[in-house]
Structure formats: structure tokens, C-alpha cells
Amino acid sequence: MKDKETSRLPGFHRLDAAARRREIERRLGEGGLGAGLSLEQADAMIENAVGVVGIPLGVAANFLVNGEDVLVPMAIEEPSVVAAASNAARMAREGGGFVAGADPAHTAAQIEILDAPAGSAARVAARRSEIERTANGTQPELVGLGGGVVDLEIREAVGRPGRLVMHLVVDCLDAMGANMVNTMAEAVSPLIARAAGGRAGLRILTNLADRRLARASCAVPFEALGRRGFSGERVARAVVSAAEFAADDPYRAATHNKGVFNGIDALLLACGNDWRAVEAGGHAWAARGGRYGSLTAWTIEGEALRGELEMPMAVGVVGGAARANPTARSCMRLAGIETAADLARLAVCAGLATNLAALCALGSEGIQRGHMRLHGRRDR
Ligand code: NAD
């Protein structure tokens, strides 16, 4: 379902939880949010299942992504994150919302060959079509849908002489792809070891999905940033300064990026995706220059604060828990997510939003005022 209704929900946060749920169920129509994961469903997903753990599910309002209104489902135990995402999305909306894009779902499996003698890379490269055929042969459904192997990359002497690593790059279409590419890697590794004249080592995907980036940007007008005694321009300059601090200092960058993942992980958890995989890829990407740094960049552009986030985003709408968990399916329907690229785009928007909210608070009245007010609701 593409939500054609506005994502502006004035007064939504003042409703009681049951009334909010009714409004979301009205939007979802038949099936609604569903009853959640049953023990039987959990048992089919993991081993030794004994129950399901509850995590609050909220909905962030105000998101405008590539001109479309989107409600963002967020599963998270931490107070203030859903409010922060909604507030930041409202500010970004003043500048036209978020612009987002995603690369094709190209995921690489690594096949390690040990004791590879000199010249083995050329011998492996010469077997390219056989390798592709063997790998694709394990995934007839994916290939039938137009996916499959798109590239082979061979790296020699990785870390030490004699370690050859082949990256088997696969278009996973609407899947996260880990299981599929791992199966392909295991199928082709004997062939590669023989061609190389070495012995097979590890065969598994890399979570540093740097061929599968998603990106989001926004331009927030100064007037949308003003708050209690702080002009919008002052807040914008404080955000830029905070982003520079994160770029300069890994201690700060870790916390800065945690704020980015507040939005990303909450959406991915709501949508039944492997957020550890995305965390691993994001942090490795943040350290790609040799030193851990910020995932986002904030600059002043005319009378606006411009934000950008680009990072690996290996997510799926088929496979894994995305289909197995009925609440995840409802959450994706609520957000109008039909493809892996839809989810990837929305995830970077959510991450940019929670980063913006945190930096605006840190650069003005501080983070604790809003945070503790919302923490305090627990004691009611
Ligand atoms: P999967 O094994 O369920 O494969 C996806 C299936 O969907 C395939 O059978 C494919 O043919 C089918 N499919 C139908 N329509 C499709 C479409 N439009 N696009 C693509 N495929 C389509 O799932 P997966 O995505 O290969 O693996 C994801 C799971 O792997 C996650 O649960 C993840 O946690 C887990 N995992 C992760 C890691 C890691 O990140 N390091 C390692 C191992 C496993």
C-alpha cells in the first residue's frame, strides 16, 4: 500500500495509545497491524524458541521522501527517538523533505583461497563464465527474476602473500541476500581453489556492502531550526560544528553515529530486517579512510542547513524475517515499502532525521531536557 494520505499527524502524540493504533489500523485497512508474532511463528524462525519479547512499536510522523508522504514505523525501547525523528522530519519538510536514492542490491560474497601460487588470479579469471554458471545454478528463482552474478573481483595477497580473495558480486534484487550469496560462494569455492592451485578458506558474504549504498539529503531552512532562545542560524552553525567534531574525533563519532542508528535500527527492527548486518556495514564504512569518522555531513548552504548521509544498506523485503514476521509485513505496508530499495531509502532518511534531532538539541538547550521529560513518562 502506498500511503497517499499525509504523514503530518498533528495531535497524534496527544492521543492515547489505543486511539493512535485505531488511526494506524484505519490507514492499513484489512489485516491492520495484526496480533504480533506467535510462539509457533517464532519457533519456525529460530532454534530453542520459548517466547517472544515485546519491543514498543511507534510511528514517526511528518516524513516527506522524494515528494511522497511516508509514515515511519519504529520498534525501539528508548524514549525520545520516535519524537526526535518526527520533529526532525517536520523541520526537513520545511525545505521540501528528504531526497533519497539507493544503488542496485549488489552484494558480494568473499571466497578465500590460501596458499595460492603466483599467477593464480589470471587462472581464476579465465574460469569466469564457469564460476558464474555454477553460482547462478544454485539460485534459479533469483536468476529467473533477473538477478544473479554481476561481477567477479579478484584481490591478491590480501594481508599476506598466498591469500587470494575473490568477490562474487550478486544482484540480490529485493532480498538482503546473505543466505543466497553464501550458498553461491560455497558452490564455487572448490572450482576456484582448483583453478588457483590453492586450498579453499572461508566462504561468506562481506557485510561491508560498499556496492550497495543508500543516500539521503535534506536542506532545512534556518527558520525551521529556531527554538527556545536560539535563532535558527545559531542552531544550524552549532550542528555544523558538531558534525566537524564527529569528523575529527572517533570518540565523538561513535556517539554521533549511534544517533544515526537510532533511526535506522528502529525502522529495520520494525521491518524484520537484520540490523546487525547494517550496523556492521555502517561502522566499517565509517572507518574506511583508516580512522573511524562520522557517517553524516552537515554544511550551511545559503539560508539553510544541508545534511547528507551515504552508507551501505543491505536490506530486504523478501527472505529472512521480513516475510516471516506478520508485524514486519504490516509495518512495510504502512510505510509503502514494496522493494528493498524503498526500505534502503527510508532507512537513510530515518538515520539522517535522528542525527539532525540529536545535533539540534546538543547544539542548543542540550539533550537531557527532552530526553528526561520523555523518560519521566515511565513513572506515571
Ligand atoms: P533467503 O535465504 O530467504 O533468500 C531469499 C529468497 O527469496 C530466495 O529464495 C529468492 O529466490 C527469493 N526471492 C523471491 N522474490 C525475490 C526477489 N524479488 N528478490 C530477491 N529474492 C527473491 O534470504 P537472504 O536475503 O538470502 O538472507 C537473509 C538472511 O540471512 C537474514 O535473515 C540474515 O540475518 C541472514 N544472514 C546474515 C549473515 C550476515 O549478515 N553476515 C550471515 C548469514 C545469514
Characterization of this structure:
This protein is α+β, with helices and mostly antiparallel strands. Helix content is 45%, strand content 20%. It has helices at 17-28, 39-45, 81-93, 120-125, 128-137, 140-144, 178-196, 222-225, 232-248, 250-270, 275-286, 320-324, 326-334, 340-362, 368-376, and strands spanning 57-65, 68-75, 99-102, 106-114, 148-155, 164-171, 199-205, 213-221, 296-301, 304-312. The strands form 3 sheets. It has a 4-stranded antiparallel β-sheet with strand order 3-8-10-9. Helix 9 (232-248) crosses helix 14, helix 10 runs antiparallel to helix 11 and helix 10 (250-270) packs across helix 14. The longest helix has 23 residues, at 340-362. The protein is globular. The model has no long low-confidence stretch (mean pLDDT 95). Residues 139, 141-142, 145, 147, 172-180, 182, 205, 207, 274, 277, 316, 318-321 line the site of nicotinamide-adenine-dinucleotide.
Helix run count: 15
Task: Report the major sheet.
Answer: 4 strands, antiparallel
Low-confidence stretches: none
Write out the strand line-up for the largest beta sheet, numbering strands in chain order. Answer: 3-8-10-9
- Radius of gyration from the CA trace? 23 Å
Give the overall shape, derived from the CA principal axes.
Answer: globular
- Amount of beta strand: 15-25%
Catalogue the ligands. Answer: nicotinamide-adenine-dinucleotide
Could you give the count of β-strands?
A: 10
Structural class estimated from helices and strands: alpha+beta
